[in-house]
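To whoever is on call:

I kicked off a structure prediction for a single chain this morning and the downstream step that reads the tokens threw a length-mismatch warning. I double-checked the sequence; it's 263 residues and nothing unusual in it as far as I can see. Pasting both halves so you can look.
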Amino acid sequence: DRYTPGTGTAAFIESNYDTVAVQNTGSYGQRTFVFSYALAGLVDGDSPSTRSDLLAAILDFFLEEPPPPPNNAPLALDDMETTREDSAVTILVLANDYDPDGDPLVLTGVTQGVHGTVEIDDSDTTVTYTPEADFFGPDSFTYEVSDGNSGSDIAQVYVTVKPVNDSPLALDDMETTREDSAVTILVLANDYDPDGDPLVLTGVTQGDSGKVEIDVNDTTVTYTPNPNFNGSDTFAYIVSDGNGGLDTGTVEIIVRPVNDAPG
């Protein structure tokens, strides 16, 4: 590389000296400078070649520029995030991270959560956490950040998955009774709630050929067929988990005939 002097001239008089400014190119290492000069003020008896050799010896040097400062690694700070059960969340993990040198940061790796998957998004600056189906509670994972200059750091992300209510599942039932005989039906016996909430009956429809009532315990129903009816009848019931979750089941009743005495 060739360095060019800055503006101005330097005058060297007898044993005095002066300075010449040169431009800084931003690189480092040894550089050679070439100076142009003219001798003036020679007196009788001076030899131009002698003065030239002397001046050239003074100006023949090189400059050792200092290397750039070493790269400072980025600092990745831990993060906390929340999401809801069965809902993925995008996390801006780099939002609170920084690089002392001002280098742009990117994500270079993540670990997986115990109860969810973690993916680096296309931007290389955010991640998406997806909890396992029906999981709620705490989970965590780590990520690695790089400054592009061999500097990296690792931080932890703590995710809290908040529960959401899962509706109960009411499964259809079948029951039999005899003509003119009421029957109590445990309609909730085969129903369940994913969250383990206790279930209660909140409503029933009536059969075409019989009457349906919810018992006082709100967990069973009593079906009473119409007098002398026999055959098949149906009705529906609604079950609740007490947290806004509802489902509807259907009950089929077979009413068996009995022999009626002659009247």
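Update from on-call: the warning came from a stale cache, not from the record. Cleared it. Sanity check on the structure: The chain has three domains: 1-68, 79-162, 173-256.
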